[in-house]
Write a structure and sequence with these properties.
mainly beta, 20 strands, about 10% helix, about 55% strand
Length: about 375
């Protein structure tokens, strides 16, 4: 592994990766083993370009394999676009452009989404990132218009968000992020008014490649985030949103893998619809309609998911519940079967329940 091209600060291999490389030394050269190792290197160094070179070794019947890991030299790049058709919620789409100058970055994007939250929101977002020593300064700006089902005094029509944050890379795989979020919402029902949901943010995320003894790559991701709104920041709302999530992926490559994930959340206080939890979309309880589960969102949430892919076949199973404090909890389940061609998934998901069943059809990428 050539590390000199990784920037001013050399990025070290994980212990699991070093053990994997040592195991391959002296073994017969097989293409599938090299492909698997390259996949693991790409997972360990996201955002870098990985190239492989095979040359004659120092002795007869031996070869030398070099992996070069380097930062992409492209200044302008397209974001990974996301588009989705949901038979109950219609379409969602997002795309953008990244501009990178050395370590600094600027991104701009257009979004119309009727999947992530209770409302459909459409508008623009932009973000700037600038490294300062071991820290990274970020600034996010968003401006959206919202559409809702029906009329309710909790439903806003426009929203503007500004989020200045800082990031610190701690131990290997550990990222801490903190900052402020300023949200201003304009309401038109029952009377025109403007309210703010200003909050303190903090997030801790951990990513590690594991050596569990299984074939292929094992990647662990886990995180905790806190959003605490307070009148001290000029907020019209006072609440604390706690969210936990974790994900474990086994796989030989992107086409053959199994992902197990879980998440949970608690809101203490009265939060705007903007920050309430939602289940029943393209990533959670697939097969259920989110408006059937919690039309205005909820303050408690637990969800589990298993997502497996084998070549063009994809299978998913979801289980979860969301509820308001003091109200009964109902655990729900769903399952889906899909086919993946050139990164595009077509899936039929059904809710597992007694009574009539209405399947939901999903078509898109990056969900």
């Amino acid at each position: 592994i050539e590390e000199s091209s990784l920037g001013s600060k050399a990025v070290k291999l994980s212990q699991a990766m070093e053990r994997e490389i040592r195991k391959l030394r002296g073994m017969p050269c097989r293409t599938e083993l090299l492909d698997r190792l390259e996949y693991r290197i790409r997972a360990e160094f996201p955002g870098f370009r990985v190239t492989r070179q095979v040359t004659r070794g120092s002795a007869q019947d031996k070869v030398r394999v070099d992996f070069l890991v380097e930062r992409s030299q492209r200044v302008i790049d397209l974001n990974s676009p996301r588009f989705l058709y949901h038979s109950s919620n219609q379409y969602s789409f997002g795309a953008g452009v990244d501009l990178r100058v050395r370590e600094a970055g600027l991104s701009m994007g257009l979004i119309t989404d009727n999947d992530e939250r209770v409302e459909r929101y459409s508008g623009i977002r932009g973000a700037v990132g600038l490294p300062v020593g071991a820290w990274r300064l970020n600034l996010l700006g968003e401006s959206y218009r919202a559409q809702w089902r029906g009329e309710n005094d909790e439903f806003y029509r426009t929203r503007q968000t500004v989020e200045p944050t800082v990031e610190l890379l701690g131990a290997p795989g550990l990222v801490w992020r903190a900052g402020l979020s300023f949200n201003q919402m304009e309401f038109q029902f029952p009377a025109a008014r403007v309210q703010s949901a200003n909050a303190v943010l903090t997030t801790l995320r951990y990513t590690k490649q594991l050596a569990t003894g299984f074939a292929g790559s094992q990647m662990l991701e886990a995180g905790y985030s806190l959003r605490a709104a307070t009148t001290g920041l000029g907020s019209d709302f006072s609440y604390q949103q706690h969210r936990f999530d974790g994900r474990l992926v086994w796989g030989e490559n992107a086409k053959r893998r199994v992902a197990i994930s879980g998440q949970g959340g608690v809101i203490n206080g009265t939060a705007p619809v903007l920050d309430r939890f939602v289940l029943g979309n393209s990533r959670t309880l697939r097969g259920w309609n989110r408006f059937e589960l919690a039309p205005n969102g909820a303050s408690r949430m637990v969800h589990f998911s298993a997502d497996g892919r084998w070549d063009f076949l994809r299978l998913v199973y979801d289980s979860g519940t969301l509820w308001q404090e003091g109200r009964p909890k109902v655990l729900r389940h769903s399952a889906g079967l899909g086919f993946v061609v050139s990164g595009i998934t077509a899936m039929v998901a059904i809710p597992i329940r007694n009574g009539s069943i209405e399947p939901i059809f999903l078509l898109g990428m990056n969900f």
